[in-house]
Amino acid sequence: MGSRREKTVIIISVAVLAIIILAILFGTGVIDLGKNSDKSKVQTSRDASGDNTGKNAEPVALPLGEAQSPTDAPMGPGSYTCIIRDIDLDGCLIELYDIESGSDVEFTFTAATDIRTSYGKIIGAPLLKVGDIVTASTADGSKLDSIKGSGDFKTHKDVMRFRIDSSIGRLTAGNNVYKYDDRILVLDGERFIDIDDLNDLDVISLYYKDNRIFFIKVVSSHGFLTFSGTDDFDGGSIRVNGNYIAQQISPDLTIPLAVGDHSVYVENLELSASADIRIESHKTAVFDLSPFGRVPVTYGDVTFNINPEGALLYIDGVNTLYNEAVSIPEGSHSIRVELGGYISFSGTIHVNTSGGTFNISLPPAPVATDDPPEDILYNETNEGDNYIDDSEDPDNDSDSNDADNDFIFDANTSDSSDDNTGNAPEDSSDKEATGSKTSAGHKLIVSCTEGTSVYVNGTHVSTVSGGKAVSEKPRPGTVTVRLVLDGYISRTYTVTIEDDDADAEFTFPDMVKQ
Question: Less Cβ around it within 10 Å: N or C end of the chain?
């Protein structure tokens, strides 16, 4: 009887002891009924389907701006090496990423939480920042008792021109080769990005242990350059900071560039454009090339009415048919109209999109009289006494000179208000002697080679300056105009001065060298 009772007591004691042991094991996390197996199942499911939505699934680095959800259950009491994901100072919450397990966990902290730097200096929670690597300790698995900067990792700072091979989880920086897995975390500014979003233009710092990278911080990031308005630049070349880019300009071209200011120069045939472009982290700058493209050419339809028929029209030196309206680019253009036996016309027209009509009438070329010796000014020498002055010839038939000398070019003739009389006759008695009394208030305007001296009925009246010689208009009738220029063949023309209330204008051919 007694032995049975003793056996019962022993069995009960063993059972109680077993329960106590199990409770201790559960409390310390040594035994995790179903938890690890569930995690294994989630991992297996993710490997099979690519779905990593299971709450205990091992996380991968996230796309730009995304964050993994923290686990619902704490990791249990202990100390953990973590990266700070987020801090809510008002709510006294801190989200940590456990480097070893690849899990996000949320803890609370209080004013009593001991927060120190890796050198042991006490600091406040506001000095903590996203991306800090810390050792976090908790006694109950939910509230942090201490947070201390971690010195567990080696650092390779300011790495440039690195290479990433994501297929085998390898990063090469110079002669150093590192490995990494899905647990790696990459921080660009205050955003976590996927490792594949890095560009070899970036400058990064590596945090690793045993040649395995756990964490990457982007020191200097990259952005992108694109072009708009490329129609006239397609296929052109690009230089950035003086260095040619391998790609040619196209509407969908995107060039990654390091963050900062860059000098960009593009050219295509005769076109070129340059600008200073600022590149910001993970942003795209657009260089608009449309202001540098070819200027659209607008035309005006111009009608020419030229008398006599058969005269040749030259526009900017090009012989142009004008039997129909001529389409001319907007702007100023030189024209010349000429025909044998007539005085040629040279001038400038101004064309706009509305076009217009220009009327040009060529006067017949004056018939030259017998010239005195070419090397002697006939009005100052004895040889000139034999010169025939048609205006004083009583047998002169003025009717024979009634040819139409009208010269019309819309309103593009010289303003008659311009007074450039040059050397006027010395006195009126000379003009009486030569029969060249003036028509009061009007001018005689002669166009010819610059510097040519103009004589009317033997009297020097002006010198061509600025393309024109301006003097007082002679009385109506036939007068003789002689043109003299040193080193050139002198010419004499007989012209008719109309009895009208207008200036008399004549354009003579250019002087010919001796």
Answer: N
Low-confidence ranges of the chain (pLDDT < 50): 1, 29-30, 32-73, 373-436
**pLDDT, tens digit, 9 for 90 and up, residues 457-508:** 888 899 999 999 999 999 888 888 889 998 888 888 888 888 888 899 999 8
Cβ-contact 207, 180 below 8 angstroms: no
| CB neighbourhood size of 337 (10 A) | 23
> How many residues appear in the chain?
514
**Is 412 inside any structural domain?**
yes
Confidence (pLDDT) at 491 = 82
User: pTM of the full predicted structure?
Assistant: 0.44
| Secondary structure (3-state) at 350 | strand
Please tell me the total count of domains within the chain.
5
Whole-angstrom distance, CA of residue 250 vs CA of residue 236: 8
Domain that holds residue 191: 154-220
DSSP 403-463: ------BTB-SPPTT-----S--S-HHHHHHHT--EEEEEEEEEE-STT-EEEETTEEEEE
Q: State the Cα–Cα distance between residues 240 and 251, nearest whole angstrom.
A: 18
CA distances from residue 412 to 179, 415, 443 in whole angstroms, order as listed: 83, 9, 17
Residues 141 and 162 in one domain: no
Q: What are 63's two structure tokens?
A: 């796309």
**Amino acid 189: pLDDT:** 85
Look at residue 7 and give its three-state secondary structure: helix
Is residue 402 located within the same domain as residue 476? yes
- What is the DSSP code string of 275-322? EEEEE-TT-EEEEE-GGGSPPPP-EEEEEEEEESTT-EEEETTEE---
Q: What is the rounded distance in angstroms from the CA atom of residue 50 to the CA atom of residue 257?
A: 33
The residue out of 180, 199, 220 marking a domain boundary is 220
CA distance 494 to 276: 68
72, 55 contact by CB (below 8 A):
yes
Neighbour tally for 384: CB within 10 Å: 15
CA 475 to chain centre: 64
Whether 133 and 141 have beta carbons less than 8 Å apart is answered as no
Provide the 3-class DSSP secondary structure of residue 134: strand
Both 260 and 193 in one domain: the answer is no
Which pLDDT score, from 0 to 100, does residue 370 have? 53
pLDDT at residue 26, rounded to an integer: 58
Q: Are residues 452 and 436 in the same domain?
A: yes
Q: What is the pLDDT of residue 432?
A: 38
pLDDT digits (tens, 9 = 90+) for 282-291: 889 999 999 9
DSSP classification of residue 380: G
Q: What is residue 24's predicted lDDT score, i.e. its pLDDT?
A: 65
